[in-house]
Amino acid sequence: MSAATWDLSGLQKRLFDIIRARDEDEGADVAALAADLPEPHRDAVTGGDIAALGAIGVHPCLLIGFAYAVGVQRPAFMDRLPEVQLSPEVPRWRK
């Protein structure tokens, strides 16, 4: 994919590939796996910037898997996740 064609779906697929590669081989080079990502995405991936990936819109389940794959432990990345805004509406199952 060229840099112009990368979208959120493509980024999430690449993150999943990185998670799988690191699961099979802890020495898998994240920088090499992220080499063809556009610069802001590549910088976030190679830097393990969970907050930036969350701001881009990466699904939280992928963020958690990616954080563990690159060695960021849970307490360190939980504070970096974007804050969740809950809806003021009461769900119908709670009425």
Describe it.
This protein is 54% helix and 0% strand. The chain contains six helices and no strands. The N and C termini lie far apart (47 Å). It is elongated, with a radius of gyration of 15 Å. With 95 residues, the protein is mainly α. The mean pLDDT is 83.
Percent helix range: 40-55%
The arrangement of helices and strands along the chain is HHHHHH
Structural class: mainly alpha
Overall, the morphology is elongated
> Based on DSSP secondary structure assignment, what is the total number of beta strands?
0
List unreliable stretches of 5+ residues. Answer: none
Mean pLDDT: 83
| Count of DSSP-assigned helices | 6
How large is the radius of gyration?
15 Å
| Strand fraction | under 5%
Distance between the termini: 47 Å
Could you describe the largest sheet, including whether it forms a barrel? none
Task: Please give a quick description of this structure.
The protein has 95 residues and is mainly alpha-helical. It is 54% helix and 0% strand. The model has no long low-confidence stretch (mean pLDDT 83).
Offer a few descriptive terms.
95 residues, mainly alpha, 6 helices, elongated
How are the SSEs ordered, and which strands pair?
Layout: H1 8-24, H2 30-33, H3 39-46, H4 50-56, H5 60-69, H6 74-78
Helix pairs in contact: 1-5
